[in-house]
Structure formats: C-alpha cells, structure tokens
Amino acid sequence: MKKRILALVLACMMIMALASCESAENDKYTVGICQLVTHDALDAATEGFKAALIDELGEDKVEFDEQNAAGDSNTCATIANGFVSSEVDLIMANATPALQAAVAATSDIPILGTSVTEYGVALGIEGFTGTVGTNVSGTSDLAPLDEQAAMIKEWFPDAKTVGLLFCSAEANSQYQVDTVQTELEALGYTCTQYPFSDSNDLAAVTTNAAAESDVIYVPTDNTVASNTPVIDNICRPAGIPVIAGEEGICAGCGVATLSISYYDLGYQTGVMAAQILTGEADVAEMEIAYAPNFTKKINETIAGDLGLNAPSDEYVAIG
Q1: What's the pLDDT score for residue 179?
Q2: Whole-model pTM?
Q3: pLDDT at 268 over 90
Q4: Mean pLDDT of the chain
C-alpha cells in the first residue's frame, strides 16, 4: 500500500514538473514599443531592439505591440497607458518624451529607454550617477559633446560665430547645446542659441540663425530630425554649413557629424530587455548603457555644394 502511494506521489510530481517545463517553454512575452516619431535614427533603434529580442529569445517567444506617436507627447502618454492596461511585460520607450510618458504611466512594468541623451535631465534626477534605481533603465545616444565641439574647430578654425539651433521643448537638446556652447566658447567662438518651440517656427528661427552665424550646430533633436529639409533649404543656399549631433540629421541637412549606430544602440537595449524578461537581470540595478563606438561622418553632397573637403581621412561618407 505504501509503495502504491509513493508511486502515485512520484507520478504526480513528474506530471507537475512536466507541466511546469511545458509552461516555461510556452512562455511568450509581450513587449510594448512606444516610438516618438518616424525618422531614420529612431527607426533604426527600434529595428535593432526587435532583432536583439528575437535573437535572444526566439521569434516565437516575443510579441511586439509597436506604436508611433507621430511626434506628439500626449499621444506618447495614451500609448503608454494603453500598454499598462494591456499588462505588457516590458515597455521600450524610444526617445525622451516616450520615456517620460512611460515613467508617468507605471512604476511596476520594466521600462527601457533608447535614443535618450541624458537620463538625469529627462527624468529630473539631480546628481544622476548612472542608475535610475526604479523600474527604469536603458541606453543613451549621447556622443562626446567636447569632441563634437572640437569637430567644429577642425572644420572651421577661422569661423567666429556659431549658432546653436534646437527645439526648446526637448530638455535633452537644451542640455546638449549648453554643454557644446561651453566647449565652443573655450575654443574662442562666439555662440548664440536659437531655440524654436516646434516645427511651425523652425523656418523663421533657422533663417535668423543662418543670417547671423558662420556655422550652425544642431544636437540630437527629434524635431530637427523630422524637419531636416526645412533647415537644408535655408542653410545650403545661404552657404552656411551645419554640424549635426547624429547621422540621420547630418544626412538631411549637415556637413559632418560624430555619430553612433542607432541600430546597434537599439540592439544593445534589446539584449538588456531579454535579460530582464528572463529574470537574469533586475532593471532597478541596471546602469544606463552608452554606445561604445563613435564615427566621424561626412555628407559628401552638401559638403561638395559648399566647397568643403574633409579635414582628415578619418571621415566616412554617409551612404
């Protein structure tokens, strides 16, 4: 009798173990992706993120709910709240307003940002040391701003004035231009900031900047990235070169940039997401990750139209 009971217990345990294994094998994660707007850099980051999760977990283990806010912060909030209502397993927030919306929507679901320049600025954390410490982590697209300033000196050593063109609604853009301005002034340039509130006043502000500057610098700014033809149609005919904070903007209106691969940045974010979903890592303990490599790139078409040549052979053509 005892042997029969023991056999029944063991059989039950085996069934439970098999059921547990089968359940684990059938786990499928739902990941919500909120992308602020469509442009080359953010698109590449999203594609890299999805590719990494598929590589890490398998295509049958992850389902993406991918939504685009079309440049509207309020829509980011609607998307993020929808993810919370549908109880996604993780939120990827692509760009600062998307991250801010996701953070406002939930303190429980893990959030990973990407294409975010400075998390302390984005989230209002004073004395930020690299770890948010809550349900938030991610990757930063911040290139060395001192090296971007040095690039202006490398290209235009005889220039006197630099206009800093950016969207005032983007906190990370303000952070970048403030930092670059300090570096440029130390190099002897006179700098003027030209903030615009949204795409409606971009043309007027750009026209002023082009009339009053020898060179224009634009940071990694989502509104600029979505409206590069406006800047190019003003600056190129006026003979005013633009140094850009990232490759996508440079391809549209710039001469040169010190840039990262946004696909690689998104891929790095996807690897982090896989570690969180599988329990290998705790999002609260994850430090913000930065791109390991930066490349000097030249827009040969615009440079050629302005009669400019790369100052060194370090520059790679934007293809």
Answers
A1: 96
A2: 0.80
A3: yes
A4: 92
Query: At residue 221, what are phi and psi to the nearest 5 degrees?
Result: -130, 125
Residues 97-120: what's their mean pLDDT?
96
- Determine contact, residues 30/57, Cβ cutoff 8 Å: no
DSSP code per residue over 140-164? E----HHHHHHHHHHH-TT--EEEE
Nearest to 132, CA basis, from 162, 158, 100, 166: 100
Cα–Cα distance between 250 and 260 in angstroms, integer? 12
Of residues 78 and 291, the one with the higher pLDDT is 78
The answer to whether residues 35 and 95 touch, using CB atoms and an 8 Å cutoff, is: yes
Query: To which residue do tokens 């953070």 refer?
Result: 103
Two tokens at 83? Answer: 């993810």
In the prediction, which pLDDT does 293 show? 86
d(CA 102, CA 45): 17
Number of H helices, E strands in the chain: 13, 13
32 in Cβ contact with 92 (< 8 Å)? yes
Residue 145 CB: number of other CB atoms within 10 A? Answer: 22
Q: What's the whole-number mean pLDDT along residues 57-75?
A: 96
What does the block give as tokens for 59? 């295509």
Geometric angle at alpha carbon 291, from 54 and 253, rounded to 5°: 100
In whole angstroms, what is the distance from residue 100 CA to residue 80 CA? 10
d(Cα 164, Cα 193) in Å, to the nearest integer?
5
- 308-313-314-317 Cα dihedral, nearest 10 degrees: 60
For range 183-197, the mean pLDDT? 98
